[in-house]
Protein: Fur family transcriptional regulator, ferric uptake regulator
Organism: Nocardioides psychrotolerans
Amino acid sequence: MHTSPDVETALRGASLRVTRPRAAVLAAVYDHPHADTDSIIGAVRASLGEVSHQAVYDVLRALTAAGLVRRIQPSGSVARYESRVGDNHHHVVCRSCGAIADVDCAVASTPCLTASDDHGFAIDEAEVTYWGQCPACSTTPAPARSS
Amino acid sequence: MHTSPDVETALRGASLRVTRPRAAVLAAVYDHPHADTDSIIGAVRASLGEVSHQAVYDVLRALTAAGLVRRIQPSGSVARYESRVGDNHHHVVCRSCGAIADVDCAVASTPCLTASDDHGFAIDEAEVTYWGQCPACSTTPAPARSS
DNA sequence: CGGACTTTCTTGAATGATTCAAGAACGCGG
DNA sequence: CCGCGTTCTTGAATCATTCAAGAAAGTCCG
């Protein structure tokens, strides 16, 4: 579980103090892409022992603010975190099981960044969320929610 | 204020029973695009008198399921509803004040619907959220966040 | 290397949107 | 006008996230 040896480097590079909880949280996000806060808390506790959920929430906020992790939150889902930052990629979310997968922008660069009518907004990011069914849920007979 | 006379028609067209709460909620969504649940509750009570929040939540779910309204929920925001459905449009969200505006897809049809690598997902919708600063917040020096 | 200052972690409780449950009221088809 | 089934009311519960205050730890400096 020496997950990422450069976790410390990353923290220092972001001018953040290096504490055990922070290293563990960052490593957990690297190891479990798209994990929700609760999963991260579990992963952190598995490697460090008891850690307060408050500390994890606090660390996640600090890491997000520092740009080391990205927070995503599809409608109807709790907050999730991922370590891929800086590159322009989006997500596919399964309507049935909530699974999330990364998707690189189809049109390379940042095409969607140019809205037809921006209403005077100064747009700095375009976030795309694809909705559908994951492979597992497509083959399996629709679970509940029939009409 | 009988906002939209065809509210009943819309409800019947969706095979939904026409009740006063439903008509009021639907009218409220038409009148207040991108309003959150609490605002809708307020608007409904302004026209009908006391109505339980539970009823509004229930109605909003029914209307959403029927496709009469669309539910949107940008990260860090509560659920919001809008009446524009069926057309392929997206949203710009102000990072400062949370204001939301409609934006028609820059590339006309549904370009983004084709992800570069869909990971086997059966994609049926591409939702785009633009993030930036609204005109008011761009000109005004960052308003601390007091409220 | 040690001390002091600042940031971060712990503990415990609160907030707030949304949902669940059970019974009463109402809309709709007959 | 009646009865059935859906929908509204009331009241409480859930759960992610946040707030607050004090203890502990990290970093900088001499």
